[in-house]
Amino acid sequence: MIILSTIAELRKAVVNAKSSKQSIGLVPTMGYLHEGHLTLAKNAREENDVVVMSIFVNPTQFGPNEDFESYPRDLERDTKLAASVGVDYIFAPSVEEMYPHDGGIYIRAGRQAQTLCGASRPSHFDGVLQVVAKLFNLVQPDRAYFGQKDAQQVAIIQTMVRDYNFPVELRVVPVVREGDGLAKSSRNVYLSSIERMQAPVIQQALQIAKLELMDSGDVDQALAQATKIIEDNTAGKIDYLSILTYPDLKEVDENSDQILLAAAVYIGKTRLIDNLILSLKGERIHA
Ligand SMILES: Nc1ncnc2c1ncn2[C@@H]1O[C@H](COP(=O)(O)OP(=O)(O)OP(=O)(O)O)[C@@H](O)[C@H]1O
Ligand SMILES: CC(C)(CO)[C@@H](O)C(=O)[O-]
Ligand code: BAL
Fold it and tell me: Any idea which residues are catalytic in this one (predicted)?
């Protein structure tokens, strides 16, 4: 496996692969790898000749009071893990390498970014689209791999690919979880042992909401039950708990088909997200 830190080196590797007609799979990450990221990479390994994983804690998707500085980083450990699942290239640029110019052109995420994480992290998705668009242009992947854990991110990137005609196939990988149901996340390392015991409640609450929704079709009732589970079992503060259509992220109504149940909860100081996607064709739903 080769570690690349400059755009020039990356472009050389990409041009080489393209000239020998090799397909390229891209796995964008912010590093501090866990089984979730490695599952994306394993999928990419199975479906492409060349696998490029980017490891870049992208400053433009963090708000001023968020955890950009403290976000966990360990390139040496990541390198070993990525090699173990057959990644060919890690692209780990500096911030200066990715963003040498100030005041240039920015991409604005649309309506789908006004809710859920986009409501509490203004401009987060603009930053995500900025770095993902750059990575698509630099790597020119045949396929790019994203996790369903970041369901809103997937929906917004799908819209960018559609609206800006990026010639890439998006591959979405189901959420990889710990044994107790907690979604794997690099931010889980921030949790104290008591917080770690409480954190699976987020997924349990979403499961309860799903059962209620399938049973009664009542969105408000489903949300109320999930809220109660989280409030009774954690010291956590709910950032949002929502039921929306997916991938449009609009209010559900009786014609809704795919539905996203999504939560962001502060367990102590750590903001964790999780979701479930339901297919409700033919079920009766009322909001
Ligand atoms: N548990 C998981 N299951 C499936 N995919 C995941 C999981 N965790 C992260 N991913 C995916 O890996 C990619 C890189 O994510 P990222 O580096 O932000 O990891 P993370 O663990 O989600 O970190 P964070 O702490 O920021 O939530 C994204 O496409 C994300 O959806
Ligand atoms: C897609 C991504 C790598 C862009 O920085 C990031 O938002 C993430 O890790 O999900
Ligand atoms: N996977 C989400 C990246 C972020 O929280 O910035």
Answer: 37 (proton donor)
